[in-house]
């Protein structure tokens, strides 16, 4: 739920989302401007098309408004005001920005249209196909890892499949790779009921792999049709698990609602005149504030999928003196996302009213942290377990126990010099 005061010239700066977004306007009004996806991938391959305008990426409104003449070559698709009862759909990767300042001309012939905005309240429902790896690119990557084939689109150190060389592919091919899997992909749990669908998806992924090789002038490494189908089946099993975890999460929310009603009825005669109080104990019981256990299950499902992908590949041995992301990560606390030290500028997801949203650490005060969310909202004094670090910290490859910061710096320089030589 998003609540925005009237008179906000920018309530959400231009950005893209990884989710398909369904907006339902509950009260008041909000202006939405929606643009076609930027086509500057060849110019800026490091930009995630589903996270434009977030983190260090700049997506200025004035450049979007330049449309086809600007460097982003976008097109303003919609400039609308949603009012109570209106529904708006925004596909993943489409830039959009909102405000609650009326700038559109009102309809003089329809006095029922109020051009003066009220405070806005809207609900957002997300379709998280890209968040949960349910697209053709994810299946392609799973097949390649499973077969131990070198990925021409991603280096081993890259973790975001939507950045890098994939953005240098021809536009149509890139779009097909990033398409979501068919809507009915998770409709049936039983593998036997999806046989025809799996075969069709596997064939499509095989065609896309061939097209990528052609576009990048890469050598075609033989991979069996059966391995493509096997990857589709494994992604289906993973997606079904994710769906079940979300089902359990919402069932927990429903159960919590029933419990609260029962408690209110039992204590009504004792607190007839007392106002409702959101106590810490109640906050901890709200399913909204208990999402972390469910997301730990999701993280586990992701790790199982990654393990399956790598289990079929032959991993080349590396030199003992060469560090790699995997060797670094093996030394990390298994719960590093919630325990590793944070510094100013770290990209994180932070607790905002019980749900986690993308943010950056702005200040550190001992064990307290201030963050700034991508839309400018702030949260101050957060505890460490209210912040999820998105990228694993680099683990030092040498023992620094008992060394001063100056000695550590000197040792690092020495190690770097030795590596270069």
What does this structure look like?
The protein is 33% helix and 18% strand. The chain has 421 residues and is of the alpha+beta class. Strand 9 (347-352) and strand 10 (355-365) form a beta hairpin. Helix 2 (136-146) crosses helix 4 and helix 2 packs across helix 7 (291-311).
> Could you describe the largest sheet, including whether it forms a barrel?
5 strands, antiparallel
Could you give the order of the helices and strands? EEEEHEEEEHHHHHHHHEEEEEH
Counting copies of identical and different chains, the oligomeric state is: single chain
Number of strands: 13
Please compute the radius of gyration using only Cα atoms. 25 Å
* Helical coverage, percent range: 25-40%
Shape call: globular
* Rounded mean pLDDT score: 81
Sheet/helix structural class? alpha+beta
Low-confidence stretches: 314-330
Strand content: 15-25%
Count of helical segments? 10
Strand order of the largest sheet: 12-11-10-9-13
Spatial separation of the terminal alpha carbons? 56 Å
Concise synopsis of the structure shown:
The protein is α+β, with helices and mostly antiparallel strands and 421 residues long. 33% of the residues lie in helices and 18% in strands.
């Amino acid at each position: 739920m998003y609540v925005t005061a009237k008179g906000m010239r920018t309530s959400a700066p231009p950005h893209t989302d990884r989710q398909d977004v369904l907006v339902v306007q509950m009260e008041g009004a909000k202006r939405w401007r929606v643009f076609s996806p930027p086509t500057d991938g060849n110019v800026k391959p490091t930009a995630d098309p589903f996270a434009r305008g977030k983190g260090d990426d700049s997506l200025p409104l004035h450049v979007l408004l330049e449309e086809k003449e600007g460097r982003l070559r976008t097109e303003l698709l919609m400039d609308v005001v949603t009012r109570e009862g209106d529904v708006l759909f925004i596909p993943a990767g489409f830039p959009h920005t909102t405000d609650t300042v009326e700038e559109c001309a009102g309809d003089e012939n329809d006095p029922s249209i109020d051009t003066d905005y009220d405070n806005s309240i809207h609900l957002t429902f997300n379709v998280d196909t890209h968040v949960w790896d349910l697209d053709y690119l994810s299946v392609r990557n799973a097949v390649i890892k499973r077969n131990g084939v070198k990925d021409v689109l991603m280096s081993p150190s890259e973790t975001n499949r939507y950045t890098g060389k994939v953005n240098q592919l021809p536009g149509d091919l890139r779009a097909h790779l990033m398409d979501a899997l068919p809507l009915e992909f998770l409709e049936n749990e039983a593998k036997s009921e999806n046989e025809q669908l799996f075969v069709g998806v596997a064939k499509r992924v095989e065609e896309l792999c061939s097209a990528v090789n052609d576009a990048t002038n890469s050598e075609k490494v033989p991979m069996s049709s059966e391995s493509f189908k096997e990857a589709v089946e494994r992604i289906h099993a993973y997606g079904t698990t994710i769906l079940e975890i979300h089902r359990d999460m919402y069932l927990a929310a429903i159960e919590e609602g029933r419990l609260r009603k029962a408690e209110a009825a039992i204590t009504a005669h004792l607190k007839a005149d007392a106002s409702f109080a959101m106590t810490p104990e109640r906050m901890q019981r709200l399913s909204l504030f208990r999402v972390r256990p469910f997301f730990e299950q999701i993280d586990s499902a992701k790790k199982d999928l990654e393990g399956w992908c790598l289990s079929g590949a032959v991993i080349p041995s590396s030199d003992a003196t060469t560090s790699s992301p995997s060797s670094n990560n093996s030394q990390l606390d298994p719960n590093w996302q919630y325990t590793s030290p944070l510094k100013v500028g770290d990209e994180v997801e932070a607790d905002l009213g019980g749900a986690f949203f993308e943010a950056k650490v702005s200040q550190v005060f001992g064990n307290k942290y201030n963050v700034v969310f991508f839309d400018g909202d702030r949260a101050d004094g957060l505890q460490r377990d209210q912040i999820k670090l998105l990228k694993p910290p680099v683990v030092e490859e040498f023992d620094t126990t008992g060394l001063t910061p100056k000695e550590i710096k000197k040792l690092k320089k020495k190690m770097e010099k030795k590596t270069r030589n």
